[in-house]
Amino acid sequence: MQNNKRLRILVEGAIFAGLAMALEYVPHDVGVSSIQLCYGLIPLSVYSVRRGVVPGVFAGLIFGLLDMWLRGSGSLLNPLQIILDYPLAFALIGLMGITGTSVKKNILAKRPVQAGLLTVGGFALGNFAKYLSHYFAGVFFWGSYAPKGQSAWIYSLVINGGSFVANLVMGLIVMMILVRITPQVFTRNL
C-alpha cells in the first residue's frame, strides 16, 4: 500500500510538471522582453502545497529539465550556468510546499484567510529562491551582456528582478483565489 501511494505521488508530480511545461508555451512576455511570467509556477505551487517540499522539489526539477531540453537551447552557456538556471532554479520552487501542512489544517478548520496567507507565504519563498538562483546565474554568466559601465550585479538585479516581481504578483493573486474558490485542490488526496 505504501509503494502504491509513493507511485501515485510521483505520477501526480510528473503530471503537474508536464502541465507546468505546457503552460510555458503560452505567450508570457510582459512589456519589455526581460520580464517574463512563468505560468508553470502555479501548478507546481499547488502540487508542492498538496504533497510537501520533497515531492515539490522533484516536480520542479522535472519541469526545469524539460524546460532546458525543450526551450533552453539558445541559453546554455556552460554546465554551472545550466544547473543554476534550470534544474536548481526550478527545483527550488518546491520550497513552496513548506507551508503545506499548515495550509491544509487551516482549510480543514474553515480558516480561508490564514490558509491563503500561508499559501502566499510559501509561494513567495519558492519564487524568491528561484529568483536567487537566476540572479546568481545572471551575475556570473550573463553579466557580460550588461550595458557598458553597469555592473553585472545591478544588471542581473534589473533583468531578473522584473520577472521576480511580476511572478510574485501573479502567484499571490492566483493562489489567494484558488484557496478561496477551490480549497479542495490543496487537501484532496488522490
- Any guess at the CATH architecture? Orthogonal Bundle
Specify Rg, calculated over alpha carbons: 17 Å
Number of domains: 1
| Strand percentage | under 5%
Q: Which residues form runs of ≥5 with pLDDT under 50? A: none
What string gives the helices and strands in order?
HHHHHHHH
Number of strands: 0
| Number of helical segments with 4 or more residues | 8
The overall pLDDT, averaged over residues, is 89
User: CATH topology, what is it called?
Assistant: Arp2/3 complex 21 kDa subunit ARPC3
Task: Tell the overall outline.
Answer: globular
**Main sheet specs:** none
Helix content: over 70%
Structural features, described:
InterPro entries: Thia_Transptr_ThiT. It comes from Lapidilactobacillus mulanensis. It holds the Pfam family Thia_YuaJ. This is Energy-coupled thiamine transporter ThiT. The structure is a single chain. 73% of the residues lie in helices and 0% in strands. It contains eight helices and no strands. The protein has a single domain, classed as Arp2/3 complex 21 kDa subunit ARPC3 (Orthogonal Bundle). Helix 1 (2-23) crosses helix 3, helix 3 crosses helix 4 (79-91) and helix 5 (100-108) runs antiparallel to helix 6 (112-142). With 190 residues, it is an all-alpha fold.
